[in-house]
């Protein structure tokens, strides 16, 4: 690896895991990254150098900027950080905001200035942000004025966080007006850290993942270029926050890399998304299966004819949702699995290569295999742990869990998969979502998919419920569709029986949920992922309380 340009603040480089615990980084030679690389400049300034500055780039409910206008905003922010707040290369900057053009400009301004973005979900409380600031030793925070109260709580609780600069009421904007709009990107190395992304907490304890400038370019050269294949005339729209690496790529990096346009919605609810698709003529939609199901329930109310490509990620895509969307829209959903540790999607398929129900194949630049508990590759068709490697990979920020995530140079994602004879990968469950009942291995998502085929089911999460006789039984937490809620105990019992019978007739009967709870909502992360660990913990606590009472 090339000798890095040493930043003045070496915290991030010092906190990288030991080199022996890094995954193997493969196929980097194919991208020809120079030793000196600032990804913000390589993406944004390159568009201007090509003479495309007057082309529209970014839209919101209140803002429309061309590429040149966006560059000038990012440059002014970079100048504010360096000249007014003495940001030095390698320093971390917290970024807390709902999706907006100014948030996107802040991301590029921080990186152009040589800083490291630590973006957080706008739903986080001050106490949660303080933990992140402590771990990443963040001195300065940029944030939306609407989130000031929680940011100030974070400042009170985190010793390193001493400066806060908000936008939305003119504080940052006032300083930006004093800058020229010209800023020469700070020289950084391809293997300098530019992003510390914290995992969304589906397993309970978020981890900071460290990504280099070359990693940002790699996801543009892999999933974006090889699978999504966008065109300059495309208009991107979606729901994931820019603080979520799926959203960062989907709604900011990929549109820019393809010289396309993007729409950023502050409140990207399914209804708002659908309305905005019509307003802006969006061609490329990126959201989670839950949103697709909601839009499907009201499909005839929307005008979605401009859509040409739709990507599903963030949660496993049920085949029922794929089929229903294809029937309603004529579009095959592009499925994909990614990880914050890997920065973006690494297995997917597009167009005629899509096989409904399968996630797809490793995208160019990545390799994958299925291994057993001992790290040995299993036979074709057998279920095991997914292992992957490519030009990106896991580097946790000062976290002992690095040794668990990386095994013999491979990233172990925590997903149970099988691979068929044609090299397609089929999701079975998260490794900790596998339920062992009376000696049978039952994948929770398979039961969820079966339940989602029933018209009474809006959302569902399936977990193991401790059971003295069987070890565990399958339990389903179900959010019912509108108008399907039973009115009394007899109707409730009839509905439970109907759902259990439905599952028995759809998949192997032994997999049916022996226990069902109806709930108004499911616990989720800020990115919309279901927190099944919280439900498992609830069942464990209930089991423990039952034993004590006995």
CATH superfamily of the largest domain: ANL, N-terminal domain
Number of helices: 16
Rg value: 24 Å
Mean pLDDT: 91
Distance between the termini: 62 Å
- The count of DSSP E runs of length 2 or more, i.e. the number of strands, is 25
What class, by secondary structure content? alpha/beta
Strand arrangement, largest sheet? 2-1-10-9-11-12-13-14-15
Largest sheet: 9 strands, mixed
- Estimated share of beta-strand residues: 15-25%
Named CATH architecture of the largest domain: 3-Layer(aba) Sandwich
- CATH class wording of the largest domain: Alpha Beta
The low-confidence parts are none
Helix content: 25-40%
Shape: globular
Q: In the residues, how many domains can be counted?
A: 3
- CATH third-level topology of the largest domain: Rossmann fold
In short:
By secondary structure, the protein is of the alpha/beta class. The protein has three domains: 38-187, 3-Layer(aba) Sandwich (Rossmann fold), CATH 3.40.50.980; 213-431, Rossmann fold; 438-549, 2-Layer Sandwich (GMP Synthetase, Chain A, domain 3).
Question: Please, could you describe this protein's structure?
Answer:
- This protein has 550 residues and is α/β, with parallel strands linked by helices.
- The protein folds into three domains: 38-187, 3-Layer(aba) Sandwich (Rossmann fold), CATH 3.40.50.980; 213-431, Rossmann fold; 438-549, ANL, C-terminal domain (GMP Synthetase, Chain A, domain 3), CATH 3.30.300.
- Helices cover 33% and strands 23% of the residues.
- Strands 2-1-10-9-11-12-13-14-15 form a nine-stranded mixed beta sheet, sandwiched between helices. Strands 16, 17, 18, 19 and 20 form a five-stranded antiparallel beta sheet that branches. The protein has a four-stranded parallel beta sheet with strand order 4-3-5-6, sandwiched between helices.
- Helix 11 crosses helix 12.
- The radius of gyration is 24 Å and the shape is globular.
- The model has no long low-confidence stretch (mean pLDDT 91).
């Amino acid at each position: 690896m090339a000798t890095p340009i040493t930043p003045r603040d070496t915290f991030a480089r010092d906190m990288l895991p030991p080199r022996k615990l890094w995954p193997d980084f493969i196929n980097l030679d194919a991208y020809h990254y120079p030793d000196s690389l600032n990804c913000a400049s390589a993406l944004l300034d390159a568009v201007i150098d090509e003479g495309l500055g007057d082309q529209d780039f970014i839209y919101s409910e209140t803002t429309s900027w061309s590429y040149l206008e966006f560059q000038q905003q990012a440059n002014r922010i970079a100048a504010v950080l360096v000249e007014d707040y003495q940001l030095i290369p390698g320093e971390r900057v917290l970024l807390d905001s709902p999706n907006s053009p100014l948030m996107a400009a802040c991301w590029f301004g921080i990186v152009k200035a040589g800083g490291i973005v630590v973006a957080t979900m706008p739903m986080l409380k001050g106490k949660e942000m303080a933990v992140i600031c402590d771990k990443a030793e963040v001195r300065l925070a940029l944030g939306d004025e609407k989130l000031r109260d929680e940011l100030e709580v974070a400042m009170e609780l985190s010793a390193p966080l001493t400066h806060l600069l908000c936008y939305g009421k003119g504080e940052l904007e006032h300083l930006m007006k004093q800058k020229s709009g010209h800023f020469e990107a700070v020289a950084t190395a391809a293997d300098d850290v530019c992003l510390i992304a914290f995992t969304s907490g589906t397993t309970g304890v978020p981890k900071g993942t460290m990504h280099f400038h070359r990693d940002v370019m790699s996801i543009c050269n892999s999933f974006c270029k090889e699978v999504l294949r966008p065109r300059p005339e495309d208009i991107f729209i979606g729901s994931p926050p820019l603080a979520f690496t799926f959203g960062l790529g989907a709604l900011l990096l990929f549109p820019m890399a393809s010289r396309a346009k993007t729409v950023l919605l502050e409140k990207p609810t399914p209804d708002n998304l659908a309305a905005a698709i019509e307003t802006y003529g969006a061609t490329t939609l990126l959201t989670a299966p839950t949103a697709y199901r909601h839009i499907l329930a009201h499909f005839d109310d929307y005008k979605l004819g401009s859509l040409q490509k739709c990507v599903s990620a963030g949660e496993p895509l049920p085949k029922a949702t794929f089929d229903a969307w294809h029937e309603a829209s004529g579009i095959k959903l592009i499925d994909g699995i990614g990880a914050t540790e890997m920065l973006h999607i690494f297995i997917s398929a597009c167009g005629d290569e899509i096989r409904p129900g399968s996630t797809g194949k490793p995208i160019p630049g990545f390799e994958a295999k299925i291994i057993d508990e001992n790290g040995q590759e299993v036979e074709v068709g057998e279920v095991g742990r997914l292992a992957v490697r490519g030009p990106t990979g896991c580097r946790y920020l000062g976290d002992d869990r690095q040794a668990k995530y990386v095994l013999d140079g491979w990233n172990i994602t925590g997903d149970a998969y099988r691979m068929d004879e044609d090299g397609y990968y089929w999701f079975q469950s998260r490794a900790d979502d596998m339920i062992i009942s009376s000696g049978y291995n039952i994948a929770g998502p398979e039961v969820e998919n079966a339940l989602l085929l029933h018209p009474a089911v809006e959302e569902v999460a399936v977990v193991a419920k401790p059971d003295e006789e069987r070890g565990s039984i399958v339990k389903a937490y179900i959010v019912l569709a509108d108008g399907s809620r039973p009115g009394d105990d007899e109707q409730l019992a009839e509905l439970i029986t109907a759902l259990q019978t439905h599952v028995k007739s759809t998949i192997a009967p032994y997999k049916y949920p022996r226990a069902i709870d109806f709930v108004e909502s499911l616990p989720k992360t800020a990115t919309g992922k279901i927190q099944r660990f919280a439900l498992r913990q609830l069942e464990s606590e209930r089991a423990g309380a039952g034993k004590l009472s006995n």
